Amino acid sequence: MLGVFVRSTLRSGLVKPGLRVRPVTRIPQRSLVHQEGLPQLPVPPLKQTCERYLAALEPIVSKEELEHTRELVEDFLKGGVGERLQSGLERRARKTDNWLSEWWMQTAYLDCRMPVAVYTSPGVVLPRMHFQDRQGQMRFAAKLIAGVLDFKRMIDTDSLPVEYLSGKPLCMDQYYRILSSCRVPGPKRDTVVNHTVGKPPLTHITVVHNFQFFVLDVSNSDGTLLTVDQLYMQLEKIWNSSLQTNKEPVGILTSQHRNTWGKAYNTLIKDKTNKESVRSIQKSIFTVCLDAPMPRVSNELYLSRVAAQVLHGGGARWNSGNRWFDKTLQFIVGEDGTCGLLYEHAPAEGPPIVFLIDYVVKFIRQRAEEVRSPMVPLAAPQKLRFNVTPQVKRDIEKAKQNMNIMVHDLDVKVLTFSHFGREVPKQHKMSPDGFVQTALQLAYFRMYRSCCSTYESASLRMFKYGRTDAIRSTTVDSLNFVQGMEDPSKQNPERLALLQRTIQTHKEMTYNAIHGQAIDRHFLGLKMLSIEDLTSMPEVFMDTSFAVAQHYNLFTSQVGSRTDCVMCVGPMVPDGYGVCYNPMDEHVNIAVTAFNSCEDTNAAKFAQAVEDALLDMRALLEDTIPAEQ
Ligand code: COA
Q1: Does the structure show a pLDDT above 60 at 126?
Q2: Which of 345, 428, 506, 522 is catalytic?
Q3: Atom of ligand 1 nearest to the CA of 471
Q4: What is the residue range of 380's domain?
Q5: pLDDT, average across residues 330-359
Q6: pLDDT confidence band for 199 (50 / 70 / 90)
Q7: Among 128, 176, 286, 356, which has the minimal tally of Cβ within 10 Å of its Cβ?
Q8: Is 35 in the pocket of ligand 1 (CB under 6 A)?
Q9: Please, which pLDDT band fits residue 9 given cuts at 50, 70 and 90?
Q10: Residues 485 and 537 in one domain
């Protein structure tokens, strides 16, 4: 979903045209057959995209700007440039498995130089678990590890069930990219290394406690996986060998701006021991962060605190050094029942990650509580050594300072909206997603008396190697609705009609987006081709309207799950909000982020405005039409 290309440079060394997008991982036979049967991502008709673009601009730019852009679009369509780029894109689509996915991975993620922490890595916040001490933390972590390994078994044995969206089977490729995978910083562009291919198969995870990393081999010598009891015993050993709290937090280096980290990385791995330790982390199946207790907060603030802990670790004093932010999957388990996950976004979107969480949570619930000593003693997990030279120490100090600035800047509010869930819109024959999106529009309008460019992630996984496109939820209809709600002269039946129309339009846009007919990725493709061809950039991508359209003050995503959790992401722009939500049957989990450095934004105020908007919209429904039981 995240890492929209406004964050990236779009400049550096581009992909050679005609490159085939190949899976870097070994996909088992049955899944391969499924993959091969998936349709290719289409290139939408150029005229259609241009018309949709103009319609999307209408509520967010002035009449004059719109007129100017209309002229540029005319030129683009009739002057030959648009047609030439469109033909180039269609050629690329014929030659590749997916004309977009490689470009997307690079522009949205790997070229992006901002830190992955807060800026691109999403977190998942789980409700407080039922443990309150160190033993509980270990026991829970042991079960969690066993659960993820059980999930891995499904991947390895090719028995992962195919997912569906609107009745269509989805691309499962992302599942083969999230384990044994890690981002590696580069001077201009990062890479992602995936170690699922190779012999012998990798059998270790990394565990980090008090900033110290350990290799935990999860299989016995006969190849069987360690039991929960054995994992527990190994975690105990890790804990006991990492009681010192004065260790250098080498992991905090990974939170830096990518160029800074790229340089520090090269310095770090000059030392052979350091290089081997870094490789062990990169190759591990996943990482478990056993976090130190964080300051206690009220129940009301608890989930917001966990969201912050997951996204950045709380600062150099707390758990920010207890991470390897480049690692694709990091599970976070705190002593006070805190549980969450942080993932590096380049290889995958949220839905496969929460599917994994659903599986693991169910696995944990089914496991008995007892812990017994294993019969066979196991070798102690190996601690990873780092030689901290004066330069590495300076790099760590700088990373600590920058992390603390980031921590102070991030404003997070997790709201459990408990008045109703997705059942209410459904009873009124409305899409729950459209309902929440419209509430976000109303909340924003009430706070700012205008509307803004809004991004909602839509899955492109109906297509081979599909990732995401954007639903632009701000429409003329949504503007009419929010204005209608604020206009005292309007009656409720009229407002209701405006609401119904807004949600219907949103539904149509969702349909278009998930069927590969949205605006944003098509424009990205045309832009990328123009850069590759070294032709001058078409003016339509250079005018103010385009900049306004790309400036997503509302950067949103629904990631639904069976588990009562919510994803959280940082805002896309300095003066915007990141909003993720999980509509459950009877309540909605909503995570809002903003930056404290922006005077105009406030996560808690926005969350409150969303709550009020949802309640007012329900009141509108109940006032005007009876719900269907
Ligand atoms: N009347 C009654 N019920 C309705 C309805 C209506 N008019 N419209 C929708 N519903 C029902 C649906 O049938 C569905 O029912 P189910 O829960 O029984 O399956 C439910 O409401 C949810 O539908 P809706 O709220 O419309 O959303 P959705 O599930 O179709 O999701 C997106 C919409 C955009 C979130 C989804 O298509 C998508 O792309 N998800 C992936 C997002 C992503 O990749 N994020 C990346 C994050 S990194």
Answers
A1: yes
A2: 345
A3: 34
A4: 113-409
A5: 95
A6: low
A7: 128
A8: no
A9: very low
A10: yes
201: cis peptide before it, omega within 30°?
Answer: no
Distance from Cα 433 to the centre of ligand 1, integer Å: 6
- 404 and 423 in one domain? no
Among 426, 463, 510, 561, which residue has the most ligand 1 atoms within 8 Å of its CB, making it the best to mutate?
A: 426
φ and ψ of 183, to 5 deg: -80, 145
Is 448 in the same domain as 371?
Answer: no
Same domain? 370 vs 502 = no
Compute the distance from residue 437 Cα to the ligand 1 centre, in Å: 12
Same domain, 141 and 162: yes
The DSSP 8-state label assigned to residue 110 in this structure reads: I
List the 566-568 sheet strands across, edge first.
Answer: 382-383, 212-217, 204-209, 287-291, 329-334, 339-343, 123-125, 566-568
Q: Are 43 and 88 in contact (CB under 8 A)?
A: no
Dist CA 298 CA 608 (whole Å): 18
Q: Are residues 552 and 464 in the same domain?
A: yes
User: Using CB atoms within 10 A of its CB, is residue 13 exposed (0-12), middle (13-18) or buried (19+)?
Assistant: exposed
The answer to whether residue 56 scores a pLDDT higher than 60 is yes
425 lines ligand 1 (CB under 6 A): no
Question: Separation of 36 CA from ligand 1 center, angstroms?
Answer: 26
Compute the distance between CA of residue 266 and CA of residue 224 in angstroms, rounded to an integer.
Answer: 37
CA of 358 to the centre of ligand 1 (A): 18
Q: Write the CATH number for 500.
A: 3.30.559.10
Report if residue 9 sits inside a domain: no
Q: What are 70's two structure tokens?
A: 């209309």
- Letter string b/e over residues 110-119, b meaning 16 or more CB atoms within 10 A of that residue's CB: bbbbebbbbb
CA of 431 to the centre of ligand 1 (A): 7
What type of residue sits at position 92? R
Q: Report if residue 485 sits inside a domain.
A: yes
For the segment 289-300, what is each residue's pLDDT rounded down to a tens digit? Answer: 999 999 999 999
Model confidence, pTM = 0.94
Q: Whose CA is nearest to atom 34 of ligand 1?
A: 458
* Cβ 509 under 6 angstroms from ligand 1: no
C-beta 510 within 6 A of ligand 1? yes
Which tokens is 169 given? Answer: 């089977």
Tokens representing 396 are 């760590």
**Listed residues 392, 409, 426: the one ending a domain:** 409
Residue 137 tokens, joined: 């933390």
Same domain, 287 and 339: yes
562 ligand 1 Cβ < 6 A: no
Is 515 annotated as catalytic? no
- pLDDT of 222: 86
Q: In the chain, how many domains are there?
A: 2
Together in a domain, 268 and 368: yes
**426 CB under 6 A from ligand 1?**
yes
Does residue 37 fall inside a structural domain?
Answer: no
Nearest CA to ligand 1 atom 1: 429
